[in-house]
Structures are given as C-alpha cells and as structure tokens.
C-alpha cells in the first residue's frame, strides 16, 4: 500500500485500484425531502467494490426470501474480510453476506443456474433501478484486474464449493462476483441508490417500492453489525449509523427516516475501511443528531 | 441443561441458577413519560448476570474515560461468551466489554487497587442509584455458587493476567466479578435502571445525569453490536434495539428516546440468550415501530 | 464413506476410489538382503495417493536442495490433512510437505516453469527409477475424478498463490498434483521404491544412489513426525517406524538398515490412514524388533 | 529475554531462571557399557523444567497404565508450549503429555486425591531412583518464582478443570506441577536418569527394571514426536533422536540401545529449546551415527 499518513492507505492489492487519486474526496447527503447536499468529488465515479454487497443481498432476498439464510449467516465475523478460518470451523457457511465469502455465496444464489452474463445484467439493472440512473456501468479494467489477482477469493469460493455451499461452477460465480464489485458509481449515484433503505424500502424519488419495510430494517441491521468487517463495532461506536464500506474508499451510510449518505476517500484504515470517510460521517452524524443510538 | 422445547433451556452451569422456575416470564416497559406497562412476573427478582456488564462498563468509563479502551476492545467477537481462543490471538485484550473476559477486565479497572468489598459496594450503589432503588441486593448464594464452579472464568482471568491485562490479584477481581453478576433485580427495577440509556444519559425519573449524551449513545452502540454474544447479529436483525442479555434469562433493551424495556424468561437459546425474551421483544418492537433501523 | 466396522471406512470423497474392494489386503516386506516376503493382494495395483508425496519431496530436494524449506516447513501440523486454518496463521507457508498444501507447494517447485506434462513425466520416471520398474503408470480415471472434485485442494492452492507461495498457474500445479497422486502401484512395487530410504539413500537392488545418506535420514524423520497427518503421533507410538500413508489405503514404512515395507488395505481410520495396514505394521514391527525406538 | 545473539536467549519469564549464567554449557554421554564422557559444566545443577515431564509421564503410566490416555492425547500439537487454543477445540483434552497442559493433566493423575506433599515426594523419589542418586532435590526458589508468576499455567489448569479433565483442586495440582518442574539436576544426573529409556526399560547401572521394553519404546516415540514443542519436527530432522527439552536450557536425548545423553546451555531458540544444546546433539549424533533414521 502507498503511505498516506493522514488519510490512510490506498488499497493496492487490486492493481487497478492503486491508480486512484489518494487526495480524492466526495460527499453527498440526500435527506427525506430529496434535498441534495454535495461536496468535493461528488460526481467522480469510483469502484464501489464491497458496497455492491448491499444490493446483491437485497436482490437475492427478493429472489429466494429467507431461504437465503441457509447459505449464509448474519453474525459479525470477528475477523478480517477475507478470512478463511471461520469457514473451516463452520463447514463452509460464511458468517454474513458482507464478508467476501458471504458475498460470493449470495452471488451464487443470484446466478442460480443462469449464464454469468445474464446474472450480471440483472445485478446491474437492479443497481440502475434503485439509483434511478441507467448510465451506471461496470469498469471492465477493474473487473479484469480482480479476475487476474483474486486468488484469495478463488480460495474462498473453492472452499465453499467443497462443502456444497456454492452450487454453480466456481469460475461462473467468481466472474459475476468480480464484475459486480467493479461497478463504478459516483457519490451522488450511490446516495440515490441507498434511499430505499432510509425510507422503509421505498425510494421517495421514484416512488418505487424496492423491498418491504421490514426487509429494509433488517438489511440496515446487517449493515450495522457486519458492514465494516472487523471495524464494524468501531463504526457503530463512532458514527452510529448502518453503513457499508468498500476497499475503493466508498461508504454508503443510512440514517433511517432521515437521509442516505455516500462518502468517498480512497485511503483506508487497518480494517480496510475509508479513513477520512469514517471521520466525515462521524462529524456529520454528530452535527445532525442522526445517530440511531440516541440524540 | 433441562429441556424446555418451546422455551429454550434453563442455564444449569451455575448450579444455583438451575433452581429457577422455567415458566417464569416478566416484562416491563417504561416510556419517555415514565408510564409503566408491566406484565407477568415483573416484580420477581432474578439474577441479572451479564446484564450487570452494562452498568460496570458505564461505571468504568466514568472512572477512567476512554483509557478503558486500552484494556478492552469494542468489536463483536464472533465466538461464544466464554471463548479463550480470541485472547491468545490478541495477546490478552478481550474483544469487547460484554464477553466474559472483557467484563472481567472492566471489573479489574473498577477494582483498581481497592479492596474487593469497596469495589463491590461501589458497583452496587451505582446500580441502586441508576435504578433509584436502594433495596437492590446481591444474591450471595448465586455468587458463592459461581465462585465454586467458575473455572472457565478463572482461566480467562489468569490468562489475561499472564499478559498484564489484569492488574489486581486474580482472586480479588474474580470475586468482585462473580458478585456483581449475582445482583438480583426485578424487571421493574431493571427497566428503571436502563432509562438513562434511553434518554441521552439522563434518568427522567430522578433528573440525574448519569453520563453525557454521547457516552449513552456509544454504550448503546456496543450493546447493539456485542450485547448478545454470538447471537448479536440475530438480535439486531430481529429486534432492532440495543440490548444486553444474561444467562439468568433477563434482557435489558433500549429504544433510544422512547423506552427502556426489561424482559425475563429463564429458557435460553443456543447462543445463551433468553428465547422467549427475544421473541417478546421482537413482537413489541414491531408493534410499536421502535426499531432503530427504520419504521 | 461406506461403513466397514472392523476395517475402517473406504475413502469415497474421490468417487473413483470408492470403487475399490474393501476386503483387499496386501503386504510386502523386502529386507536388507533383498529377500521378499509377500502376502495377500501384493500384486494388485492401487492408487498410492499421498504416498507419492515422499517421492516428490525427494525429487524436489534433489532439484533445489534446502531452498525447498523456504516454501514449506517441516513441523507436524496438529490438524487434518486438508486444513486451511494453519495457512492463514502462517501466511501461506504449509507446515510440512506431507499435508496436502505442502505437497502442492512441493509440486509447484518441481513444475517450476515447465509444462505440466514434462513435470509429470519427470515425476513418473523418477518413480519408475527408484522402483526399478518402467511399467508403473498413472490411473487417468482417478486423476480425472480428483480434478473434477478437488475443490478443497483448489482452495489450498489458490490460497497459497495469494501469498506468492505457488509460482506457476494454479491449474498447472494442481494438474500435476492430482496426477502424481493417481499413480497406481502394487505393494511389491512400492516396497521396492522405498528401499533407498531404508539403506542410506542407495537402492541395494540396482546399486543406484538416489540421495545422500543424510538426506535419506532426514526424509525418514519427516515421515515419522508428519507422515500420517493428525495420526502421526499414534503411528510412531504404535508402530515405531517412519511411514507415509495414502487415502487409497496404502502405507509405505521404512525400517532403517533393515527393511522396506508396503501394506495396503482400503479401510481408513478417523485420521484417514489405513486401519488394518497400521495394525499389520504394528504386529510386524513388534515381532521383528524393528522399532526405531528400541528393542 | 536477554539477547544472546549466538547462543539464543535465556528464558526470563520465570524470574529466578533469568539469573543463570548464559555462558554455561555441559554435556554428558553415557553409553551402553556405562562409559561416561563428560564435558563443560557437567556437574552444575540446573532447573530441568519440562524435562521432568518425561519422568512424570513414566510414573503416571506405571500408576494407571493406558487409562492415562483418556486424559491426554499423544499427537504433536502444532502450536507453542503454552497454547490454550487447542484445549478449546478439543474440549479440555491436551494433545500430548509434553505440552504444559498435558503435563499438568499427568500431574493431576499422579496427585489423584493425595496431598500435594505426598505426590511431590513420590515424584522426587522416582527421580532419585531412576538416576540412582538420592541427592537430587527441588530448587524451592524456582518453584516459588513459578508459583508467583505462572498465570498462564493457572489458566490452562482452570480451563481443563472446567471440562472435568483436572480432578483435584487446581491449586494442589499446580503446586505439584510447579515443584517438579523446579527439580535441579546436573547433566550427569540427567544422563543417568535417562538410561532406562535407552536400554529397553532397564537401567544397566542398577539392574532395575523401570518399565517394560514396549513402554520404553513408546515413551521414546512420544519424545520424538512431541518432545520439543513446535520445534519437534526440526529436532527430529536435524538430530534424529528422541529428546525432551526444558526452558532451563537442558535437553535429555536417547539413542536407543546406545546411549543416554544430557546437554545444557541456557540460551533458547524461538521454539523455546536450547539453541547450542540442539547444535551439540546434531554434531554428536552425526559423528556417532546414532540417528534412529539410518546410518
């Protein structure tokens, strides 16, 4: 990783991600009325990486409902995002849908016998739908870069396959996974895409019901307990909002009933979450009194 | 454990706890106005066990502030309440103040060179103060029962001592720990004691400021991510409130700004949390729209 | 696994192996003078599986010498043959060359930039050379069966690749690995192949020096401490000889200075080693006074 | 630990052990005829520490026979001498009698309802008997030093107690354990004490049968696979003899049928075994052709 003392370090394990400007910073807040506050690089697209897991979880729950939880748990993992130890102990069932193994299992559910291209199309269209923006696309260079270097994820997928938790050919599932992690979005697009989680499952801008209110609450709950890998407790303690980070430096945070927030700053802390992004969200939540844990 | 198919199993590893009536059930809700809704065995005292950890955490933070976090983390553990594996990996620093090892470390901070009797008196008086009820007492038989059989906790304490995380004599720290876990309270008393967490650090009944608003939020955050051991994700997903359980079958849950809730049913689920208690809280939260994750 | 109460269970995780006759039993002992004692199915070929790891270790040491130990350790693992947990703790370096991960790393050293077919040819020729029998061949159906189902090994290889411990394309290394495990040999051939280890690195039958005496001793030492996965202590305790087992039910055991022994019985014990094979070796060693731990 | 670049580091975790002269070195070899070769500080007493575990294992096997193996395993641990992780996974049963947990369990078997003083007397008399030297004694300062600082061992003992693997009061068992580890012996005494293991269970000097031949072989086997903690594979690979090390810097090594060897040099390597001691044994074994793995 390149050293960024005050901003954390930019992820370099996916070569393509290392090219990003470490000084970039963007923030967009959309409140219940649809008012948008945007600052910095709010219209620069970045690789959303693991933030895509919020949307694949939503999509998979829509497809198979609570049967999804036979393939993945919903407990915090107490270990880094790419740990394989827990899988051995728990016979191939990942702890939650937001660690890599869990997201791969969720992707496998979405794939479900279809061709990778179809499944990927479905995920992308779902993202365009919730964000109400058909221009959202996959950064193929990032996807290719991950595919060339994603040996750890390949290990996780093969390991789950050995327990029967992955049902499709490993390469198919991984192909879809690498591609949806490589979706590029701006903070503005991301904040729009998160609105249904802030407003009981309905996007106020489009009027579309994406999920039932209970499901929106539950996805928020999983984000709160598992959304920042082994820094989830820290994020809850400091920010007090459900959120999901990606190694591209983005974070989507939800203030239920109040706002959808997207922040982007590429430097990461030790747990792999955006360093400045978390600090910005902590300051914002405090100023606005948006913590879900009390005013 | 004795089999209670529909209610979970009563904890028997502390012999004295096994004597409890498995049919017991109590529930008390105190809302922002101080209105009390009580049902069932709401005035029967039970052993609060690990629920005491919420109050020792609050007390220790009041004594040493954020320096407490040098001795204990605040991340979910991803393992059972009495696991020792994590301690070896992380050199004696417990993951959070709500697993046994963490609560023992917090107790050691409170003890801090004093005599066990003094430290215990301080904890008990603090509990009486927040609950505004001087009649709250320790069940000496339960404390003695734990002291005779608490080898696992003794292992945890000695292990942390070997890393210097425990500073007082191990027997002193454990003595205080076993006794504060043996505090007996009714649902009514417990719900009263939790009000400061629901109302920005201030108990509306007494007007006492127990902690600053930010500290109340943060304690709630730790409860949400770590309050139910390896069932914390499940509790957040189903109930959607910060809460802390004890193996005596009690749960204290906080609806920030709205209510303090205590429930008691001795049968436990696999993760060691009250089975019916959780179900009751899930139904109540849903009915009242109190989930912190959205309406 | 198919139940064989008195004989252990035949491995079924490689479908092709499950077809073997569970009643089969063969034993061949070749002493220092070259006298051969053979019994049972001593001329029936079986899949040597992990016994091939003794020969790939020997070959790799011949190619790169002690530099091999930068890529693999030589300590017992304290865990099953296909565990991945240890790899995470030790950053991709397998504990020893006889667990699957270690043998895959050794195979990668042999491959070393060549085409899989060449590397495999080299391994097969080496086996034919030490056994002095050019008829030894690979069972392609077994190799194909492993290649279709070896997800766990694929996970191990990809995991090591993520740490840079595997240098060739994962599929190349695994292809060679699956094929050398699928070498089919009879007890007679296997006992002949082991003679250089019993006689200071030289095969008395051919007069060929395969390795230096010190290297033969050291390979025997690794067989003793690591040759039976998590049953290595048990094998040393009961049999008292260096040995290497395979899930095909074969065991190669070495009585230094005295004899090379091959036994085959497909039923496995819990640690994955031939049940009757171990019992036969225990009786034989006791009768002959061959234990390396004293008469 | 104090730095001794060329000799390893002297153990300091038991304060009393840190006082030893790091330059000390002693070596005694007693061959089958009783010829003694002695060099260096061969008559300076040192703390035998874990080497005592060989003799408590022998004593306990004499008392309860193979029933001992219900309380302790005999597989290498794949982890450091004081690891507690394995105990959680295997429900309180230590992997082998030579890691600390295992030796504590063996001590508990010897104690078996007696007073600590009696059990300790029995162990000491057994040591005097096998060494044929009634002057062997316990260094009380070392024992007291361990008792004051042995929190890790106390954690192990309490942890096993929670699973019922320790039957006596924890303090009793630990008291006996700390004291037998504090036995002080010279290399000469230690080499004499090991002779029964080199000669089929009989001490040629006294003619006493200490154990049956098979038991001597089996104890040697456990020493080979487990005698040097997580450096057991390395010791077998380099030295090729059954051996047991102690953090006092001593090693007892057995060349079956040939010699009993004791070496002492206080500097330890990373795995906690005497650094120069191992090197001296490697050179000696090579010179004499004593490796059990071939000439």
Reported by name, the CATH topology of chain A is: Beta-lactamase
DSSP strand content of chain A: 5-15%
Pairing-aware structural class of the strands and helices of chain A? alpha+beta
Strand order of the largest sheet of chain A: 3-2-9-8-7
Task: Based on the coordinates given, report the CATH architecture of chain A.
Answer: 3-Layer(aba) Sandwich
Which CATH class of chain A applies here?
A: Alpha Beta
Identify low-pLDDT runs of chain A: 1-5
Number of helices of chain A: 12
The number of domains of chain A is: 1
- How many β-strand stretches of chain A? 10
Could you give the order of the helices and strands of chain A?
A: EEEEHHHHEHHHEHHHHEEEEH
Q: Assembly state here?
A: homotetramer
Percent of residues in helices of chain A comes to 40-55%
Keywords (chains A, B, C, D): Acetylation, Hydrolase
Subunit structure (chains A, B, C, D): Homotetramer.
InterPro entries (chains A, B, C, D): Beta-lactam/transpept-like, Glutaminase
Pfam families (chains A, B, C, D): Glutaminase
Model description:
Chains A, B, C, D: Keywords: Acetylation, Hydrolase. Chains A, B, C, D: One of its GO terms (molecular function) is glutaminase activity. Chains A, B, C, D: This is Glutaminase. Residues 1-5 of chain A have low confidence and may be disordered. The first copy, chain A, is 43% helix and 13% strand. The first copy, chain A, has 295 residues and is an alpha+beta fold. The first copy, chain A, has a single domain, classed as 3-Layer(aba) Sandwich (Beta-lactamase). Chain A has twelve helices and ten strands. Chain A has helices spanning 52-64, 85-89, 100-111, 116-131, 140-149, 151-162, 170-181, 187-193, 195-198, 213-226, 232-238, 275-288; strands at 9-10, 26-31, 36-40, 46-47, 137-138, 183-185, 243-245, 250-255, 259-264, 267-268. In chain A, helix 5 (140-149) crosses helix 7 and helix 6 (151-162) packs across helix 7 (170-181). In chain A, the strands form three sheets. A five-stranded antiparallel β-sheet of chain A has the order 3-2-9-8-7, with helices on both faces. In chain A, a hairpin with a 4-residue loop joins strand 2 and strand 3. Chains in contact: A-B, A-C, B-D, C-D. The interface between A and B is large, with 42 and 42 residues.
